[in-house]
Amino acid sequence: MATIFSRIAAGEIPSYKVAEDDRFFAFLDINPVAPGHVLVIPKHEESYIFNLDDEEYAAFTLFAKRVAAALEKAMPCKRIGVCVIGLEVPHAHIHLVPLNSEADMDFRKPKLTLPDEQMKEIASRIAAEFK
């Protein structure tokens, strides 16, 4: 059975897409820890990031780096935080979070619920910066 992330990448479940190529997909987290929180995934299912072969791991992190550069231009912040937890969904993913303080990266705090229009606007700004 496909993971929710595979279904999002395949277009079966709507998402706020910010970047995509033939191997990877990036979209806004629908319950972000900070506005602009992005998830980056490989399109094929692999439950654990460190199970990716070396070439794919390198390509995955380089794609995430490009998304982070776009995110930093689109969202006012001091830095982009990077986190790999991998417990919530059994599909390798990288969290990219705009940071203005360390508290912005606290996954234990209550998640945000942003209006659809705000999510669309954030996704559009990031996508416009992605090169």
Assembly form of the protein = single chain
Q: Cα-atom Rg, whole angstroms?
A: 14 Å
- Output the strand order for the largest sheet: 1-2-3-5-4
Distance between the termini: 33 Å
The tally of helices reads 3
Low-confidence segments? none
Helix content: 25-40%
Structural class label: alpha+beta
Number of strands: 5
| Mean pLDDT over the full residue set | 95
Largest sheet: 5 strands, antiparallel
Strand content: 15-25%
In short:
The protein has 131 residues and is an alpha+beta fold. Helix content is 31%, strand content 19%. 35% of the residues are buried.
Question: Any overview of this molecule?
Answer:
The model has no long low-confidence stretch (mean pLDDT 95). This protein starts with a helix and ends with a helix. A five-stranded antiparallel sheet has the order 1-2-3-5-4. With 131 residues, it is of the alpha+beta class. The protein is globular and about 35 Å long. The protein has helices at residues 4-9, 54-74, 116-129; strands spanning 17-20, 24-28, 38-42, 79-83, 94-99. The chain contains three helices and five strands. Helix 2 packs across helix 3.
